[in-house]
Amino acid sequence: MTFTPGRDRRDLPLIGNCVEGVRVDFTSPGYLDSILVSVANSSGPNAPKTNVARSGLEVTFERGSMLQNVYELYCEHVTAEVERLHSERGFSLTWALGEATWLIDSLLPSSYRPGRAQDYDALLQACAEVPAIVLETDGSRTGVSPKQLSKYESFWTVDSLFFSSAETLLREIPGSAAISQLASNLGTESLVLPPGPYISMQRPRSIAQGLAFRDREVNRIDLRRDQRRVDLRWAHVSKPPLWRSGIPESADAKRALVPFLAPLGIQFSNEIQDLLIGQGQVECVGFDEEVAIRSLGRTFIVPGTRYSQYLMELLDKIEASPDAATLATYAIAIQAITFITGSLQQPGEFVRQQLAQLSRTVPLSASNLSEDPELVSLLQSTVFKSFNPQSWIRGQQPGV
Description:
Blueprint: E1 16-19, E2 22-25, E3 39-42, H1 61-87, H2 93-107, H3 120-127, E4 133-137, E5 140-144, H4 146-149, E6 154-160, H5 161-172, H6 179-186, E7 198-199, H7 207-210, E8 216-224, E9 229-236, E10 243-245, H8 251-257, H9 268-272, E11 275-278, E12 283-285, E13 292-295, E14 298-301, H10 306-320, H11 324-339, H12 347-361, H13 373-381, E15 386-387
Parallel strand pairs: 1-3, 8-12, 11-14, 13-15
Antiparallel strand pairs: 1-2, 4-5, 4-7, 6-9, 8-9, 10-11, 13-14
Helix pairs in contact: 1-2, 1-3, 10-11
């Protein structure tokens, strides 16, 4: 008999789940795909049960326990590697904890790593135990896990190019040097930390980094214009939440909105998913008529403004009945904060142009799209002033 290379199981790497030494599947333990070179063996009375053909595992309590143990073993390996980087190989604490995030990302499925976890909640729970967050408090810097961080009533983030540069410097210094120590040595106010625990994270770019912000919301925004800096205080989510997502909660409404965004140059995966509309009492310090703050990759529409109230009213209508006119109006209103800086001179003409653009691309006739007088009035009366500390980079538009 002839075996085709790559198809014969004897040619496959030793990856899979075993029960009593017999391999019953050929994917990475804990996943539906072969994304990690790993093999697991279960034995004893608590081992998971195989199906009749011994080609897979039955969905039982024992299987769930096995998956949880597998995820914990992966994460224990990450924790041990980070400890060795810092204690044995001379890397700074900041550098080592950054590597923890990179390693955890390899475990978490994403659009770039399509491996599907068999129990995603158990995987997240295990990842939340890994010290991967730089926490600074009382003049010292330590590494904490998302689970440990969740015990703090609140913590701060700082979005500032000066802080970013300081963090890059600390990353290169062996040991556990802290921002507060650097500020003391340099004698600069620009590196003074907010009054409370501070985590070093300029922008959550992955699921692993996002674990720090699970069940958190911003309840205070300090805008330090002279330092080109935004400080955010993150507290546990209140009831009702202080912020509302710019994405409709209803799956049907969400699907209906998507075709109205791309024709106006709005990316659903970025601008909308990271848009938060203020609907509660948020402390805002240092503001000067800003309607939006951009920080950590998010856009915060300031609560208490006519603009934020109008967006929430449109979202309520979309949730109730996602008709074309309301969807178009909402998309144009969102586009305003994304593309307009300052006052709009001819709001009526702007709205008509956007409706014409939509009528050429969405599968609806122009008669289904109508101009909302309230939207025109809102655009005429609103100064779309926003603050983004990163807009000081050459090549980025002010206020974007």
